[in-house]
Design brief:
The protein is an all-alpha fold. The chain has helices spanning 11-21, 28-47, 62-79, 84-98. Helix content is 59%, strand content 0%.
Length: 109
């Protein structure tokens, strides 16, 4: 199977980066509101077909809004002390039992 990750950025790294940069458990509800807002902005960018034309000009694009959604989702996971890499493994096993696939989750990727 093709390795889709480049090995340079892991979910664990992203969680640690966000936790060091932006960890305020008292703002949990605000993080959720920001997540909801970013989902709306993602929806708008998708509806308008706003895809970045290069790797640096992402402002207001699907590219930027997807990152914002991931950012706030991981910030919330940090407050709940949830290891998303572990959750991905467990959830993929649950999904495999419900929806068998030739594509298997490979831990450590």
């Amino acid at each position: 199977m093709e390795n889709y990750m480049d090995g340079k950025t892991t979910i664990k790294y992203l969680q640690n980066y966000i936790k060091e940069k932006d960890y305020h458990p008292e703002l949990l509800k605000d993080y959720f509101l920001k997540l909801s807002e970013e989902v709306g902005e993602l929806s708008r960018a998708m509806r308008k077909g706003l895809k970045a034309q290069n790797s640096t000009d992402i402002l207001g694009t699907v590219d930027e809004e997807l990152w914002d959604v991931i950012y706030y989702a991981l910030a919330i996971a940090n407050i709940y002390d949830i290891d998303i890499e572990q959750v991905a493994k467990v959830k993929s096993e649950i999904n495999e039992s419900r929806y068998p696939s030739k594509v298997k989750f490979e831990e450590g990727r």
